[in-house]
Amino acid sequence: MNNNIPNPFILDTNAYFLFFQHPKKPHYYKLINKVSENPVISFYISEITSMEIQSVIGKYRRGSTTQVQKCDRNITIDDEIKNCQNSWIIRGRRKMRRKVYRGIQKMLKDIERQRGTIQATILKLSPDTIIKARKILMDYADTFNIGSHDAVIIATLIKTVEEQNIPLTLVTSDKGMKAVLSAKLIPFFDPQE
């Protein structure tokens, strides 16, 4: 167990997933530089992120088939509005091998149990967190593209700042979350910028 205080960053699920992506993308290294305190990489995650990452990893384990979709948009051709006759493709993804999946599951457990050089401190959900998340949705869902999981992550940050006086910065590349954070004057870091 790590007795050190984690760096004051809370990661959303997509930022957390950067640790498990292969090959590593450039924004992974920006994230590591931001949250690393040699030799340990430490950060906070919401309990909902700890749950949601399982869904994301599971999606990669299952893989997907190539999907062909008919375009149903109206387009302009020679100043006339016509139905699009094209199709678009979502490329399939190979199923993750069982050995890789189990390795990622072990890594997740080690991170969340704070064993090793990457350590996450999980911030527990409470009824108060859900109340704050609902208020965020009521205040901002009609203006910004913010989902319920995102609202719970922001509410977790707000609750932690209020109750534990930890000046957290949210790590996210999500446009809707960044818009809400800006409106609420909450600091964030986007590793993709």
TrEMBL record:
Q: Which Gene3D superfamilies match?
A: 5'-nuclease
Pfam families annotated for this entry?
A: PIN_12 (PF16289)
Query: Which InterPro entries does the entry mention?
Result: DUF4935, PIN-like_dom_sf
* Boundaries of every DUF4935 domain copy: 10-177
Q: What is this protein called?
A: DUF4935 domain-containing protein
Q: Native species of this protein?
A: Candidatus Desulfatibia vada
Q: What is the lineage of its organism?
A: Bacteria, Pseudomonadati, Thermodesulfobacteriota, Desulfobacteria, Desulfobacterales
